[in-house]
Every structure is written in C-alpha cells, then in structure tokens.
Amino acid sequence: MSRHRTTRQRGSSANMLMTASASAGDDHSDSAQDPLPSWNEGATKQAIIDFVADVTREDSPHFEPRDRRIAVFDNDGTLWVEQPMYAQMDFALEELRKVLPLHPEWRDRQPFKAAIEADFETLLKEGARNLQILVGALYAGTTPDQFDRLAAEWLAAAVHPRFERRYTELVYQPMREVMAYFRANGFKTFIVTGGGAEFVRAFAEQTYDAPPEEVIGSGIITRFESRDGRADLYRFADVDFVDEGPGKPVGIESHIGRRPIAAFGNSDGDLEMLEYTTGASGRRLGLIVRHTDAAREYAYDKGSPVGHLERALEGASSNGWIIADMRRDWRVIFPFDGA
Amino acid sequence: MSRHRTTRQRGSSANMLMTASASAGDDHSDSAQDPLPSWNEGATKQAIIDFVADVTREDSPHFEPRDRRIAVFDNDGTLWVEQPMYAQMDFALEELRKVLPLHPEWRDRQPFKAAIEADFETLLKEGARNLQILVGALYAGTTPDQFDRLAAEWLAAAVHPRFERRYTELVYQPMREVMAYFRANGFKTFIVTGGGAEFVRAFAEQTYDAPPEEVIGSGIITRFESRDGRADLYRFADVDFVDEGPGKPVGIESHIGRRPIAAFGNSDGDLEMLEYTTGASGRRLGLIVRHTDAAREYAYDKGSPVGHLERALEGASSNGWIIADMRRDWRVIFPFDGA
To answer: Where does the record place a coiled coil (chains A, B) (predicted)?
Structure first.
C-alpha cells in the first residue's frame, strides 16, 4: 500500500525549544548547524545523529519513508524531572490532603493510606496504577475540560521542592532538542506516558510543542451522560487503562496504529515500549536516559521506587539500546542552564 | 494557555481526492475555485462554506485558532457505502463461513448464529458491538500487522454486490472534498468509526489520505506478550471498546483530547458525537448525510438496521444540524461518477 507523505510544520512556539544561546538546526538534516547543542560530543550524540541520517537519507539502505518515521518518548524521567516524586503525584497528594477530612474512610484503605503516609515503596509497588487510582478518586465527577483547568492551574503555581521552579521549567533541554530534531527530519513524535494522559496534555503543548492528540497516557473511565439537562463527558473514579510496561505497546497500537522506529525511555516501565520498537527488522533506535548526575539533577536506578531502572538496563546491550548518561552526555540539563 | 499553530501539508496523494474534472480548491478559503465541486449549489453547500469562512477569517467574531479546528467524520454511511451491509461485516461473514467447520459450537451461539443466518436485525440490535465480537473471535491470535495485511488483501479483492466495485471505490466524492477543504483550511480531521480501528486503518490512508493515528474506532483487547521467544502484540477475542453512540465522545477525548468544532455523521450511532461537538458554545457545525437516493445509492433511515437513523434526525432541527440530502445536494456520489 502506498502511504502518503505528511510534512508537519511547527509554528513560532518551536522557538521555545531552543536555548537563547543555541539553535537546534533547521529542516535540513545535512545542516551545518549543530542540531543537538546541549549534548556533549561523543558516542551517544553521534549515535542519535547517525540514526537520523541513516533513516532519512534517500540513498541509505536503511531509508524509511516519512509515514514510517514515528518516535515515542516517555515523559517522567525522560523529558522532565521525576524525583523526588512524579509531578502528578505531588498534584494528587496536595488534593488528597485537602479533601481527606471529607473521606475519613481513606485513612485505612490502600492506596490512599500509602499516599497519606508518603510510603512511595508501597504506593509504587504496582507501578503507575495506584497513582491513577488516586487521581481517579480525587477528580471523579469533573469533566475533562474542568480537569484540564485544574491541572493547568496547579502546574502554574506548584514549585519543585529542590529546584524551586515550576515543574514545566524542569524539562530536559537535550531531549527537547531531540524532539525538535526528529520533527525537523519528518518524524511524528508522540509522548507515551504512564502518567494520566489528561494531566500531561494540560502542559504538553506549551512545554513540548505536543498537541493533545500526540499524548498517549493512562486513562480514567469517562462517560458521556446528561446531567442537569446538559450532556457532557464526565470522569469516573475507576482506572480504564494503565499505559506502562506492557501497556505502552498496547497504547501505541490503539492510538498510533503503527510500530515506532525510535523509542526513548528511562525506567523499567519503558522496557516493553523499547522491545516493541526495536524488535522489528530494520534500523531502529532505543535510548535509555540514565540519571547519573546527583549534582545537577539526580542519580538513581534500581534502588528507587520512582523511575526504577533495572531490567531495561540489563536488556540494553543485548538489544542494542543506547545509554544517555546524563552526567557524561548532557552539556546542560534544563533550559535555564544555558541562559 | 497559548497553543501553537500546526500546519499540515498533504502530499501528492491529496490529488487522489479530486475527480479528474474538478479540483478542490487551494489553501486559501477565499479562493475563486469551487472547493466543493461535487456539491450542487444550495443551502447545504453554502452552510458548509459559511461555517469554514466564519471560523477561519481572522476578522470573524467566530474565529477559531488552528489548534481548535478539529473535525470528526463517521465512516460507514458518511464517507462510504454501508448498504446492504457494512464492508467489515462482509469481511467477517466471509471468514466466518470459511472457519465455521472448525467451530461447530458457534452455530447455536449468538451473535454467531445471527451472522450465519444473515439475520441483521438481531445482529445489529446492540449496534456495532456484535460485529466486533465476531471480528474479535475470528482473528484472535493474530498480530495487528498480520490483521492489517489480511484486511488489506480482502479489501483489494472483495467486490460490492450491487456496484460490482471494490469497497474503497465506493467512497462519497462530496465528502472527500469536504475533508480536503477542511484540511486546506487548517483543520485536523479524524475518522471516528463504530467499525474496528484496525480494519479502517487498513484502507484509510490510501482512500482518505488519513494516516492510522487519525482513525479512532472500536477495538479488540490486545496484549504485548512473548510467544515462541518473540515479544509482540497479539489480538485477543474480547471487545475492548465500542466506538459508537456515547462511545464516540469517549473515543474522541481519549484519542484527540479536544472537543471538535465540526462533526459529520449519518445514523443514530453518531448522535452523541454530534451533541458533544455542537453542545459547546461558539460556532459549531453538525451535519447528517441523509440517504435519499435509491437510484444512485440507497434510500433508508429508521427502517434499516444498518445505518439506522431516527433519533439523530429528530434532534437535528433543535440542535441546528444540517441535513445533506444525497439526492438533492450531491451532484455526483462516487469518484468514478465524475469521470
């Protein structure tokens, strides 16, 4: 089947992806400009550039037409900070503390109890599901439009405990450059997050130039119903889908309907997405962001319940996945570092 | 929140959307060329053109920025022929007849029994669900890639009983012009089908210039598993989601994450999608394709189990939905009519 070519042109907000001191290349992959100025020179940066050249040069044996150029990015820990806790967890815990007096029964019920006690080990034992259970219960009865406003308001006000900046400032500049670089080379990019799709959509367009339909995430049961004479969508308490681990390939197929050729993750929750992406024949890219920089960001892997990285790291060499070592490979971490 | 502008440029295959004798306008909504040459002059055509002008002219009080320009299209009966049975039903019944000797237990079990007996009344009593149950059972164990090939092969060979053409030739030229016209005016277009997303994706790119991620549809449970040492996605028998009736707004929110401002349907299965789209404040377009042309296509509404149209038609005037009367409004029906 011949598939058409789509060229996506991003507007003025694409400039937001650049640091003041660096531009991220133009639409030509053979540009003399450095498309990844926040990456240190070395094998990791070169592997990313080689991959893009290999799949986009028409004379390459690994050439992929534009409709096959799908790249998927995990969010927490891959595109922005996830320590000491996921932003969405901070969002949920703040609301939980607020409404707890109305729900005394939650004090002895999991996962509420673990959340109240900040027992992350218990809370995250089953990955992203418990966080979605919390968010489902806390925002049941809102419409998606209302939820979007509440999330956006919280994100505009909340401050990260260590960096004392808004979460949306704590995005990784090197990864924003990768997203812009891939898009400039004809890729469609999607965020594939274990977090709630509606939470991430509340900031993804402004922060990553990713419109809502390019965000795939966990979901809460939503129904279209008439209430008070007005038909609308309403959120229910129950979890519909957990977009994590083996759920990520499922979410990708359901949403995109095509197997990606490049995947970026940082934890065991991304293992199956990496396997799915690089498991097919052809030139494929799998990359794991490794948090090795306690001074500028955080250093953690298998010891951390947040962003637990163990099995995916063990599988990296046999699968040919690249490790982006934050301390070694990233010249700057955050956009404001370059200013 | 300021949202970025995205311009989508469609490639050479956009030409496929035009008849040989007519071009569908260019990127300027004020073009002197007729963007809808297959539509007869009249109130319906004018209402579509007025809507597009109203939401795209910067000096219009109803101006909508590009990121808000989302248009959704039902498929069966709105973009292509659905009589005497949905193409996907034809696809399933052919496979069912083939494998029935291996599944004698299906002869007395619904919905298989109704399908075997071509009892569409029973089969479609609960809308699209039974058809998905059939397709789920028939293709359990295949990967999405395998299913895509099987569907594409079937579509390349199957012939419509009355028109003796492939189903993909039996698309409505006037609606293809609407899709192209909306895209040329900065709209993102999505197909929102009660049919299986993976079935419709097998032809949507070639037929409608709609890549897989712009197709939202019913879904079968799919899991990422290792079988024979190979990890991949596999289809299971059970229905995951029915994208019909109140399911359509749910599918739209889950997939697009934004409320559309224009919706096109033809049956009661599109009622809630129309309500959701036009229920918000601002300039909105709801359009119902009415099958009134027994000579050139079919004439049916509330008497037909396929494409049953009753409640949506009753709600049209109070909701301001436009009726596209096929006999009156469409100069040609199929692309080959214009040749």
So the answer is: none
